[in-house]
Amino acid sequence: MSLLAPLLLLGLLGLAAPLVAHLRGREEPRKIAFAALRFVRPGDEVVTMRRHLRDRLLLGLRLAALALLALALARPVSSGRARVAVLGEPHDAILLVDGSLSMSLKTDRVRALDGAADAAAAVVDALPPGSRVGLVTSDPSGPRLELSADLGLAREAIGEWLAGGVPRAGAWPLDSGLPVAAALLRADGGGRRRAVYAIGDPTARGLGSLPETAGPDVPVLPVPALGSFDALPPVPEHMSLDSVGWEPARDLDPRAVRVWGVVRRHAPGPVEADNLRRVAVAMQLGGEEVARADVMVPRGGEARVEFTHTLIGDGPSPAALALVELADDPLPGDEVRHFWLAGEDELDIVLVNGDPSEMRAHDEVFFLATALAAAPGRRLRVHGLAPDQLEARLREPRPLAGVDVVVLANVRAPAPDAAAALTRRVEEGLGLLVTVGERVEAAAYNDRLGELLPLRLREALVVGTAPGRTENRTEGLAPANLAHPALRGLGDDLGLLGARTRRLFLLEPDAARAVDVALSFTSGAPALITRTHGRGRVALLTTSVDRDWSDLPLRPGFVPLVERLVAYLDVSQQGAAGAVLRVGEPRILPGDRPATVITPGGERLAAVPDGHGEAVFKDTWVPGHYTVERGDDEPPLRFAVQVDPAESDTTPHAVAGPRIEGDEVLAAARYPRWRPLVLLVALILLIESALRWRLTTRREQARAR
C-alpha cells in the first residue's frame, strides 16, 4: 500500500477541531420556577465551561469521518503485478488513450476508461528521470499535449478529460490516433529514443488495431486498461441492440409498417444455443412506448424481434427501439437505436438501359438492379426505361416528375432538347449517375451534357495500350477515398480492391470545376467522380457497370457502394429513412441558404453553406433524431444518429505484449483504494446527522418538561 499524495495526511491535524469544540461547549443556564421571587436578589446568569466530554459517540463519528477523509485525499493505492514495461533510459513518450464508446465497459464495477487513467499514471511514474511525455486520445476532441518534462501535466489532463463526461458515443479505433502521436514525436525529436504507449481494451478496434511501430525506431507498446497481459480480467456479458429496420406492411393496412431489430448477447466463447436469456424490447414513437415484446437470446448469439404498427398522423414520426429492464448492463449506450418512421418512404430510381442483352452478365442494368434490390435500409422503387422513353418523359410538361435519381447506363447522349431538360432537372435537385460503355461517344456527351458532367470525356482506353503501360492488361482500384461524402462511415477497402478493369474512359482535367473523386484506379485515373450542379448531384463511373469492361459488379463491396452512392445522389432525402448516420459522422446539407439543425436535446444550431452550395453539419455526437429547417418554402430534412455497433463488440483479441530492445523498467499496476473510503465517509456523515438530530430532540423534550 502506498499514497499518491502523502502530504495531504497533514489533514489529520484537523482531528483536534471536534475535540476542542466538544470541550469548549457552553452549558445553557437552566431556569427554575419559584413560588415567590421578591426575596431573591437579581444577578448575572452563570455560564460554566464543560469539564468532561459529552456525546462521545457523536464525537467518535466526527473524528472517524475526518480521519477517513484525510486518508482518502492522500489517495492510497495498492500495487499488483507489473502492467507494462517502459524503456529503461530517458526518452520521449506519447500516451495514446482509447476514448471510444467501448471504454465505458465496466468490469467488476470498474470502468475501462478509469482503468486507463490509472494505467497512464503507472506508466508516467515508471518513466526514468529526464523523460518527457505527451498525450493523445483517439477521440479527436480529447486532450492533446506536446512533449513536456513536467510529467504531472498528462495526469492532470486525463483527470480533467474524465471529469468532462467521456467517453462519448463515437467509434474511433485506437490506431486512428497514431498519426498524431507520431507527428508529435517527429516535431520535437532530438536524437532521443521515442515510444508510444497505447492504452486501451484488448479488442480488434482497441489494442488489436495497433501495428508494432509508429515509424522508424518508434515502438508502439500496448498497455491494457485493466489488468495486465499475464492476467487480463474476464470480459463481462452485456446486451446490445445491433441494428433496426422497417418496411411498409401494406398487406395488413395501407398505413401499417413492420419494424424489426436484432438483439445481441455479447459473451466470450462460442454460441450456446441452450443458454437463453429473456430480454424485453420496447418500441417508442414520439418518446412514448407503444409496444413491448420479449425475445430469447442465446449466449454469444443474436435474436430478431419484430413489431407491426399502424401509423395515425401524417409525416414522419421519431421512433426508436430500446432494450428495457436491463439491470446494470456493463456497457451502457448501445441499447437504443433511433430512426424516423413513415407510411411512405420510397426513393424513386429510373434505370435507363442503353445496351440490353439476354445474357445477364452483359446486360447494362442487371447487376445494378440486383444490387439495389439487395441493399438494406431505405425502400427503393426501381423501374426501367428505354432511351427513347426517357426522352419522351423529358419532353413532358413536368419532366421526370416524382423521380429522385436517374441512371444512364451506357446510353447514347440524349437529343439536345432532352439533354437541356435533363440539365434543368438536375439543377432543381435530381440525382444523376452516368456509367460509360461502347455506346457512349465523348464528343456527343461533351456537346450536350458537358456542362453537367463532373469532367468532360476524352476517350475510351483499352488498358495496356497506353505508352509505357503495355505490361498491364487490367487496371485495379486504389483504396477508396473514405472522406468522400458518399463513402463516409464505411471502412477498409469496401471489398473493391480486387476489381479488375479492362477498359476505361479518360477525362479532361479542368481546375475550374469543383469535383470529388471517390474511387481511383491504381494509375491515378478517376474511376468514380462526383460534382454538385445547382441543387442536384452528378456521379460519373468511368467504366461499365456490367461485365463488358470490368468485373466491378462481382465484388462484395459493389452492393454497399451502390447503396451509398444512390443515397448520396438523392439530395432531397425527404423520406423518414433518408439518412442514418453514425455518431460523429458529418451530415451534408444541400442548398445555398443557411439552415437550422434541431438536435435531440432541442438545441438549435446554425449550418452555413460553403462556396459549393452545401453545408457540412458536424455536431452529431448525440444519438437521436435531428431535424433540419431550411426556410418556410422548403420541407424540413430529417436524419437520425446511431452508435456504431462495432463498439459493442468486446470480444478479446490476441495482443502480443510490448517488445522492448535494451533496458526496461516495469510499471506496476496500481489499484485505487480511496473510492471505498469516500463512500464510508458519506455513510458516517449520514449516521452522524441522524444521531445529532435524535440527541437534539431529546434535549428539547427534557427542557420542555
Automatic annotation (TrEMBL):
Q: Which Gene3D superfamilies does UniProt cross-reference here?
A: 3.40.50.880, von Willebrand factor, type A domain (3.40.50.410)
Provide the coiled-coil residue spans: none
The UniProt entry, under Pfam families, shows: BatA
Q: Does the UniProt entry include the keyword Magnesium?
A: no
Domain Aerotolerance regulator N-terminal residues, every copy:
1-76
Q: What are the transmembrane regions?
A: 674-695
Record carries keyword Flavoprotein: no
Keywords carried by this UniProt record = Membrane, Transmembrane, Transmembrane helix
Q: Which domain of life is it from?
A: Bacteria
Record-linked InterPro entries: Aerotolerance_reg_N, Class_I_gatase-like, Double_TM_dom, vWFA_dom_sf
Protein's recorded name = N-terminal double-transmembrane domain-containing protein
Name the source organism: Nannocystis exedens
